[in-house]
Amino acid sequence: MSTNYVALFLILVISEGSACFSTHQRPVVAFTAKLSKDIIVTAHGIVKYDQVLTNWGGAYNPTTGIFTAPYNGLYTISGTLLSHPMNSVHLKIVRNGIKMSLLLSSSKTHPQSGQTLHLLLNKGDRVWIQNANNVAARLHDHGSYNLFSGVLIRNF
Fold it and tell me: Torsion over CA of 153, 54, 70 and 80, rounded to 10 degrees?
């Protein structure tokens, strides 16, 4: 193989490889928050997950319980639920006021429920989990069972 072909081959390999190892950073958004204790959520109230494990990008607000998408993109949103045995609970995962999914945990038992959604969100879209019932709900937790999390898969 001549020197010219080797040089051309190396240039092609380097230019192809640079596309994979671009210096352009994609935005990173990821959060996981959980309840640190039993709580009572008012009728149609938003669950405020108070113990933040990860909040890369700062898009989850533990004071309001709301995640606000900082970029247009495909996001994975997940929630888990464990109610107190004294009541059944229906929680809904909501995007901009519209129910996307429902979590259910029955009374007199300890069943855990979970949902994972892949949602196309626009910058500024808001996602939260709220009580779907007309009565207050008691969630059972000691820092392990009730979670709300999300991650940006790809921005557009």
Answer: 70
pLDDT along the chain (156 residues), means of 10: 44 38 75 96 98 98 98 98 88 98 85 93 98 94 91 97
CA pair distance 146, 67, nearest whole angstrom = 16
The answer to whether the pTM exceeds 0.90 is no
Contact 59, 95 (CB under 8 A): no
Cβ–Cβ under 8 Å, residues 154 and 75: no
Count CB atoms within 10 A of the CB of residue 19: 7
Token pair listed for 125: 């879209």
Closest among 19, 34, 28, 135 to 82, alpha carbons compared: 34
**Residue ranges covered by each domain of the chain:** 27-155
- CA dihedral 89→95→101→105, nearest 10 degrees, is -20
Length of the chain: 156
Q: Which architecture does CATH list for 27-155? A: Sandwich (2.60)
Alpha-carbon span 98 to 133, nearest angstrom: 15
